[in-house]
Amino acid sequence: MATTIIPFGPQHPVLPEPIHLTLKLEDEIVIEAIPALGYVHRGLEKLADIRDYHQMIYVVERVCGICSMIHAVCYSQGIEELMEIEIPKRAEMLRVIWSELHRMHSHLLWLGLFADAFGFEALFMQFWKIRERIMDINEATTGSRVIVSVNVIGGVRADLSPDQIRWILSEIDGVEKDVSALQDTIMNDYSVKHRTVGIGVLTKEQAYELGAAGPMLRGSGVAQDMRMLGYGGYSEIDFEPIVETAGDCWARSTVRFREVLQSIDLVRQAISKLPEGDLAVKVKGNPPEGEIYTRVEQPRGECVYYIRANGTKHLDRLRIRTPTFANIPPMLTVLPGCELADVPVIVLSIDPCISCTER
Amino acid sequence: MFGSFIKKSRAKSPWIIHFDCGSCNGCDIEVLACLTPLYDIERFGIINVGNPKHADVLLVTGTVNHRNKKVLKNIYDQMSEPKAVIAIGACGNTGGVFRECYNVVGGIDKVIPVDVYVPGCPAKPEAIIDGVVVGLGKFAQKVEEAK
Amino acid sequence: MKGKVIDVTLDTLVGEVTNMKNDGQRLVTFSTYQEGENKIGILYHFDKDLEPTHLRLVADMDKPIPSVSGVFFSAMLVENEIRDQWDVKFDGLVLDFNRSLFLDPEVIQVPLVSNVKIDPKK
């Protein structure tokens, strides 16, 4: 049969970001997908040459706007370990609270976009309506909606007052109620299941071997979550990773949906265990020296920083491996064999964050 | 008579297209937030479309790099006249925090003419709506001038 | 750095990576850095049950490095990225973008080699 080549992207209605796929089709079936990246590549790892290690926090926050808080946590955690700084317990717990708020807004954003990918626009609007409540919390507590910029090396810059804590607790109660109301639609609706169940199946073995990360890995039945490492404040919080076994688009969306509810619980736990104390310690001594490998869990999965410092205020090397970078090979593996109409759903089901991938 | 009808509806109900040109996503999700229930710019007759040939106003976020400048130029050229361009966020205006990176050319105006610059890192939805309103004023003027 | 670091050479690299795979390790990513003049250091990060292990390879930049993308398909993207950033060749890369994964063909500089420092713009 003759093959047809269809270009997908870089400007495509379902994609919020530019990525290009060359799809080779036989009839309606995809037989090969070749990616072309580089539309968002800026080269910010090299900025370590001219920005010192304190200023780099502002740069790593802009690797990706959606998980900016958690990028900053990962980076400052690495530098603190190199410089042997012990940060106050309150700062650790505050980092957990903002990280989980970020995870919630990222997952709600994704659930909306995913609904939009199969044409369920009302559901898209519903999820984004709920998300605005979390954006309000971010804005009220830090002054900014998306890039909250509260991390510094040695702690955090903003605090939560008792009034704010009471308000946050009542807001997330509302979020929980609203999100639970949508559970039946995203998980059991006939037309939603029609577009997601059995589509883009990634088996457990494939997911592990191809190095998938985050909900992609957990949706295939591997219980791996970097929060199990107990970094920062997570060591004091009860946490169980959420796992689904089907490995299809439905399983990945269900993992993310259940993680929203889990994050609500984690915020409550963190608030109940929030100790009194300072927000940050003063950074003293020489600039960092040595090398460090540090990992955190982002909304999209495991994020790895490799930092190599030479004792000057400019880092020798900063290497960032983001979760979507790890999820592209699995996506290329599941695309062959699917129908053309399912390509947008599968591409979105990995939660692609291209600005993370290309940095 | 038909001509004046088109003129009027063009400026009163402009269709926008959004292109992410190497931004960090911060501004993109704020642009999308403008379309969702809290800000809801559809109530002003503004609709987000996916095809540049249908669009009147181009919203661009992020810096230009060596690869996507061709895509940006291509999308701009596909839009029919008259058209307006709004650059959103510090990166779109000047290159922002990334201006010194090796793969960054600079702001949007290095490649295509820009009508309105919206500041902020990321720009807030209120600022974006403000920018679109100013852009629409310029767009209406262009519609007027186009015979 | 957390985890065990094993030094490998160009000859033992693919064998060691295959051993890691047989051991049930998951390839996380590679990290690169400059090691003195004209040498590149590559760390291959693995992970099993949240325990990291690293292989460290120090090689000349002008000689090709054996590719491990035959063992782990996911290494393909990282190796192409290193090819973009350091202009290092890989032998047996399953899908070679030839320095165009991230960079446009019109970019001729090699970004991460330290003699091409970027200057602050005025």
What this model shows, in words?
The complex is a heterotrimer of chains A (359), B (147) and C (122). Chain A is α+β, with helices and mostly antiparallel strands and 359 residues long. In chain A, 46% of the residues lie in helices and 14% in strands. In chain B, helix 1 (2-12) packs antiparallel against helix 5 and helix 2 crosses helix 5. Chain B is globular. The mean pLDDT of chain B is 83. Chain C is built from two helices and six strands; from the N terminus they run βαββββαβ. In chain C, strand 5 (65-66), helix 2 and strand 6 form a beta-alpha-beta unit. The N and C termini of chain C lie far apart (38 Å). The interface between A and B is large, with 38 and 37 residues.
Write the layout of secondary structure elements.
The complex is a heterotrimer of chains A (359), B (147) and C (122).
Chain A: E1 3-8, E2 20-26, E3 29-36, H1 56-61, H2 68-83, H3 89-117, H4 121-142, E4 151-152, E5 155-156, H5 162-188, H6 190-196, H7 204-209, H8 215-218, H9 249-272, E6 289-298, E7 301-310, E8 315-321, H10 323-334, H11 343-349, H12 354-358
Helix pairs in contact in A: 2-3, 3-4, 3-9, 3-11, 4-5, 5-9
Chain B: H1 2-12, E1 15-20, H2 26-35, E2 47-48, E3 57-61, E4 64-65, H3 68-78, E5 84-88, H4 89-94, E6 104-106, E7 116-118, H5 125-145
Parallel strand pairs in B: 1-2, 1-3, 3-5, 5-7
Antiparallel strand pairs in B: 4-6
Helix pairs in contact in B: 1-5, 2-5
Chain C: E1 4-8, H1 13-22, E2 26-34, E3 39-48, E4 51-60, E5 65-66, H2 75-86, E6 90-91
Parallel strand pairs in C: 1-4, 5-6
Antiparallel strand pairs in C: 2-3, 3-4
Structural class of chain B: alpha/beta
CATH superfamily of chain C: NADH:ubiquinone oxidoreductase Nqo5 subunit
Q: What's the story with the biggest beta sheet of chain B?
A: 5 strands, parallel
**Gyration radius of chain B, in Å:** 15 Å
Tell me the CATH topology of chain C: Beta Polymerase, domain 2
| Proportion of residues in helical segments of chain B | 40-55%
Q: What is the annotated CATH architecture of chain C? A: 2-Layer Sandwich
Name the chain pair whose interface involves the most residues. A-B, 38 and 37 residues
